[in-house]
Amino acid sequence: MTDQPMNVLITGASRGIGRAAAKLAGARGWNVGVNYASNAEAARTTVSEVEKAGGKALAIQGDVSREQDVINMFDTVEKHFGPLNGVVINAGITAKSMPLADMPVERLKSIFDTNVLGSYLCARESARRLPAAATREKTASIVIVSSAAARLGSPNEFVDYAGSKGAMDTLTVGLSKELGPKNVRVNAVRPGIIDTEIHASGGDAGRLERLGGLAPMGRPGSAEEVGEAIVWLLGGKASYVTGTIVDVTGGR
User: A GO molecular function for this record (predicted)?
Assistant: First the structure.
């Protein structure tokens, strides 16, 4: 089965892996809803890159941890492009590296509200809408962005983030079984150490260089390498793949 034009919503698409996936989707001629939380300028840059690559794009502001924002986000992209047949649940945050014993409750609530509640709200809305666009000949697809931290634990750094990503792995398995009979596929990618801004935002700009070489391939990955896996899972060439978690970790 070959790729066909798709209407796709990507959360957290203003930078990093989300932006890379959006640009690759644009190169396939897809229509892309570019969700962002607050950085409108960065979202406009993503829209421009999608359009230069050959697709169409629309920037949509929304906080994924707020139910009404999520509903509005889906409504907006469907009003603009038509029914969705692909969603990438990517929006997520981290915080300064520290052991769990030092983490204030406000930090924990922030991480889990965005990374877990936000992802579940987006997954729930996808589950309500994507079956209408799915057929046996053209499945609909949800791709969830997890992390290798889910199985490595990120001790003394981000055990809260790692736990939130463990929830993504469970969501992938469970939702794939719920939606498989409706011809909606649910898969995840689990990136390793990837060259994005998330390391600096965690207060450790040297983390990428320090840990990137620990992978058997001897380097960090790129956002584009993760994006390629996401777009493959979205498209028709992965038509019999569901409930699968793809590690993009350089072997770590």
Answer: oxidoreductase activity, acting on CH-OH group of donors
